[in-house]
């Protein structure tokens, strides 16, 4: 009976080791990019572009502006690389910048009339949703479900379950205790499972009178 549990633990350990190795490489590229190494800059941007775009999309930013926010994040980061000293992973540092970019964008948008001449939120969210998350059917608009979560729970879930940050680093990005992140993720997961179960429940068929 312990075999599946031990096997799962080994797989988790391997994944954590793989993530740590990837983060170490990305951090090394960021440090090298501080001196203007163009190859390091390119590797740094390529390695984290998907994570940043996914994060700003699911954090609550308008999906129509996700590309602009992603670009803004990297512009801010590249302009601040001289202050990055590697005390945290480059990914954690960059996602903190992305978070500020989203907040600034929301504040700016809230003070101006909102115009939209493109697709609605649901269509954009369905295009942006990840297709490889275990436990979620491709036909379910995960982005739409996440959007229904409270902001803090959505952010914690996205950082740890979609972007793949360790809980401690997610806490650093969100500026809250690790225990709070764990609690938010657990509550978000419970809500998502309940909504998925409800969505998959067959609709009662009523007979005509």
TrEMBL record:
CDD domains: Sigma70_r4. Transmembrane segments: none annotated. Residues 1-24 are annotated as: Disordered. InterPro entries: RNA_pol_sigma-70-like (IPR039425), RNA_pol_sigma-70_dom (IPR014284), RNA_pol_sigma70_ECF_CS (IPR000838), RNA_pol_sigma70_r2 (IPR007627), RNA_pol_sigma70_r4_t2 (IPR013249), RNA_pol_sigma_r2 (IPR013325), RNA_pol_sigma_r3/r4-like (IPR013324), WH-like_DNA-bd_sf (IPR036388). Coiled coil: none annotated. Residues 44-109 form the RNA polymerase sigma-70 region domain. Signal peptide: none annotated. Residues 9-22 have a biased composition (Basic and acidic residues). Keywords: DNA-binding, Sigma factor, Transcription, Transcription regulation. Belongs to the sigma-70 factor family. ECF subfamily. This is RNA polymerase sigma factor. It comes from Streptomyces tibetensis. The lineage of its organism: Bacteria, Bacillati, Actinomycetota, Actinomycetes, Kitasatosporales.
